[in-house]
Amino acid sequence: MLTLVPTPIGNLSDISKRAQKALLEADVIFCEDTRVTKRLLNLLQIDYSNKTFYSMHSHNETEIIKKIDIFIFEKNVVYVSDAGMPGISDPGSKLIQYAQTNNIEYDVIPGANAVLTALVASGFEGEFTFFGFLPHKGNIREKKLKEVISHDKIAVLYESPHRIEKFLSELKELIPDRIVFFAKELTKKHQTFIKDFVKNIELSNTKGEWVVVFDKGIKNDTITFNYDDILSLKLSPKEKAKLLSQISDKSTKEIYNELIKLS
Predict the structure, then answer these.
(1) Which position has the higher pLDDT, 257 or 229?
(2) Residues 55, 93, 42, CA angle at the centre, nearest 5°?
(3) For the segment 57-100, what is each residue's pLDDT rounded down to a tens digit?
(4) Angle between helices 138-149 and 164-174 (to 10 degrees)
(5) Is residue 156 a contact partner of residue 211, using CB atoms and an 8 Å limit?
(6) 3-class SS letters over the chain
(7) Distance (Å, whole) CA 180 – CA 194
(8) Which of 81, 168, 169, 214 has the fewest beta carbons under 10 Å from its own?
(9) Nearest to 115 by CA among 5, 212, 215, 217
(10) pLDDT tens for residues 159-172?
(11) How many C-beta neighbours within 10 Å does residue 59 have?
C-alpha cells in the first residue's frame, strides 16, 4: 500500500509514533530530496540500508508517476516531503490520484503543518483559505496579493526569506493600517511571532521560512466606481493609481506613470 507521511517542520520531537512506524516498516521511500530524508532517518535512528529511495519533487513528479511499476505497491511504499504535510505546497497529491485511479490502498498520517500552526498562533477566528506562495513578480503577483488582502475569509500564505522584505513593503503600500500576523521558523529554536499594524512591522532578521496570516478583508459592495469616476476624484496621482489598478489589468506603477504624463 501507499502511505503519505508528514515529517517535522522544525522540531524533531513532533514526529508521531505512527509516522516513525511507517518509516521503519517502509520498503520503498519516495521523497523530495533523498539526502534530507536519509538525514531524518539517521536522527530517528532508523536503518535504511535495505530501503529503496526515489527522488520525487515538483519538477519531476509527473514523469516519475508515469514510470511507476504498479507492482511496487505490493511492498510498503511511503512518500515524504522535506518537511510538513505532503500535498500542501509540496508534491503528494498526484501520487494519491494515481492510487485512486489504480485502486491502490493508501493512507495519510496526520502531522506537522505550518499552515495550521500559524493560523492558530495568529489568534484570528473563523474560516480560512490557504493561498500557498504568491507569484514571484509582475502584474500577476500584484493581482494575487490584492485578492488575498480583500478575501472574505482569513487568508494564509507562505513567503520565502528572499522575498519577505519586498512582501512587507508591498503591504505597507496597500494596507498600512491592517493588523497582520507573521510567523517565522515555526517550531524551531528561533521561532518568531509578529502581530501588529503593517505600518509598525519591521523585520530585523529575515532568515527562515515565513507564514503570513491576514484576518478577513473588508469588502464594500454598496458603492461602485468606474474608471472615469476615479479619474475625476480630487486625489493625488498615487492614490488614483492605487484605485484604478484595482479595476484594470495594469499595475499601480503603470497607471501612476500614465497619470503623471497626463498632468
Answers:
(1) 257
(2) 40
(3) 989 999 999 999 999 999 999 999 999 999 998 899 999 999 99
(4) 60
(5) yes
(6) CEEECCECCCCHHHCCHHHHHHHHHCCEEEECCHHHHHHHHHHCCCCCCCCEEEECCCCCHHHHHHHCCHHHHHCCEEEECCCECCCCCCCCHHHHHHHHHCCCCEEECCCCCHHHHHHHHHCCCCCEEEEEECCCCHHHHHHHHHHHHCCCCEEEEEECCCCHHHHHHHHHHHCCCCEEEEEECCCCCCCEEEEEEHHHCCCCCCCCCEEEEECCCCCCCCCCCCHHHHHHCCCCHHHHHHHHHHCCCCCHHHHHHHHHHHC
(7) 8
(8) 169
(9) 212
(10) 999 999 999 999 99
(11) 9
pTM to 2 decimal places: 0.78
C-alpha cell at 191: 521561532
